[in-house]
Each structure stands twice: as structure tokens, then as C-alpha cells.
Amino acid sequence: MDSFTPVFCGIVPPHLLDKLARAGDPAVAAAARRTLVADAAHRTDRRLTTVIGAPAPSQEVVPGPQRTLYDAGNTTALPGTKVRSEGDEPVQDATVNRAYAGLGATFDLLMTAYGHDSIDGAGLPLDATVHYDEKYGNAFWNGEQMVFGDGDGEIFLDFTGPVDVIAHELAHGFTQYSANFTYFGQPGALNESVSDVFGSLVKQYTLDQSADRADWLIGAGLLAPGVSGVALRSMKAPGTAYDDDVLGKDPQPATMADYVRTGRDNGGVHINSGIPNHAFYLLATQLGGKAWERAGQIWYDTMTSGKLQVDASFADFARETVEAATARYGSGEEREAVVKSWSRVGVPAN
Known about the structure:
The chain is globular, with a radius of gyration of 19 Å. It contains ten helices and ten strands. The protein is α+β, with helices and mostly antiparallel strands. It starts with 8 loop residues before the first strand and ends in a 6-residue tail after the last helix.
């Protein structure tokens, strides 16, 4: 698309960091507060970019991914020192190598499954910075590149650990260059959900898993061993990813009956994303096989159709997925499965 609005999109939602900032453990609280301060600064940067306009990427398109990894050295200077470029051998730092592999896995899914060249469809180079800040408890897409924290070791581990976290953040770039959803309310929750969907698809693609064998968790392996939880979110069972004395309880609803109305977290973008997440899970498991094939294709076709408005509601998106399914597969099993999946989460699709 000719114009887009970069936004700051972190994998860990503000409401969760707010909870940690009030933790009884001073180390946990300090790390969360530091993360919140850094995130607030990045949100300001994104708003300024929206006002003055973001630079259009310009590069010579070459086949295959074009990855560049940087090391911030536990500072907040971006992008940092270049430590690995496309085609380089693995380095001693496992965090760098995991980020490199995760960028490649995301590129591979988009290209192999959908013929989409990088996140913008035109071969955009993929840049990422690791070791951002000290005990930084997040990973984010800032409109131009990926950034990963090391975690505080108490609540969060290294953010390059789960490949779906890497893919989730890159998918914010995919959304930026396609539907470009406004980052507030239902369109913001769709923005987050699309990242969870493609994050999960990249993980399943990497593991060669069918829909019925996938765990449908976002960020499994990110929480430290002492935390009572399995991941940041569950697409299979929203609201069950964690229930911890420090983190609190996973607030995600699975259906519109439990839709959360809040002014926090940009109108609950990380919370209500559980509803379209669950619709996709229901679709993928109902169709069976590899989720990135039919179910993922329908979501991809919807995102790249050019028909979605930036302020699309859940119902708008649902209707477009029905249209996309019909256009590609006709009025048979796939279309019926899409309508049924949205109906089960309480969203009208026709």
C-alpha cells in the first residue's frame, strides 16, 4: 500500500506490565517499571512518525530473505552493532542465531504458503535488534524493525526463545503493509489477533504440525519456571494461559458474551484479540490438516484483499473472511466452516 501508519506493538500487553510493576518483589517491579518507561517512549516515537510521515522503504529487491541482526548491548540505542548479516555463519550468541532463524521461518511461511515476498510483499529487508535494554520484559515491532529484550529472568526469559513471538512481531509489519488496522478497540484487537494467528502458523509450519497436534499457545517457553502459567495467550482456550500470584489471571475472553470494555491497553487490544483468535482456532481444527493451508489462506486472502477498512470491526472482518473463503473455495465446506466458527464466538459473519 502507498501509505501506512507505523505503531508500537509489544508482545507483552501494558496491563500485564502494570500488574508486575506493583509486584511485592522489588526486582520484578523495577524491571516492569523500566519496561513500561521504555515502551511509553516508543509509543511517543510512533505517534510523531504518524504526524510527520514514515519514510517509504526503498531497496533493490533480491530473492530470498535479507536479514540483518544487531546487538544493542543492553542499551536502548537502535539499531545497535551489526552482528550477523544474511548468509553469515551462526555466531557464538545463541540469541542472535534464534532471532535470525525466526526471521527466516516467518519469511519462509509467507513465501512458500502464500507467495508473499517478505512482510510487505516486495522483499522488505528484515532487521532485528537483540539484547535491548537491561532486563527488558518485551519484544516489539516499532514500524521499521524487530526488537527483543532478554527478560528479567524472574517472570520472562529471553524473548527470542519462542519462534511464535518473533513471528508475531513480524506479522505486525505484515498488517502494517496490508490492512493497516488502527491500533485501538476492535481493529486494534484484530491487529493483535492477526499477529497471533500468523505467529502460531509459523510455529506449526516450523514443527510441521497439523492443526490437531498444535498447542495453539502464544509464547510457550517465555514464562520463567516459577510462574504459574504456560504462555502469554491461548488460542484454543482464551483466558487459561496463566493464573499466577504475581501476573494475575489471563483476562482474555473466548466469545463476545465476555467482551471486555476498557480504556486500558488501547481499548483492550491484547485482551479481546482472544475472540478472533478463538474463531481461527475453531476454523483450523474444523477443517483439519495443516492450519496454514486452507484456514491460513483464507486469513491471508482477507488481509491482502484491499477490502478491509482501517477501522474494521470483528463483524466486518468476519464477513470478509466469508467472502475470501467463497472466492477461493466456493460455497462448500470451507465457507460453511468459516461461518460456523464466527458464530460460535458470537460474531455475525453474514
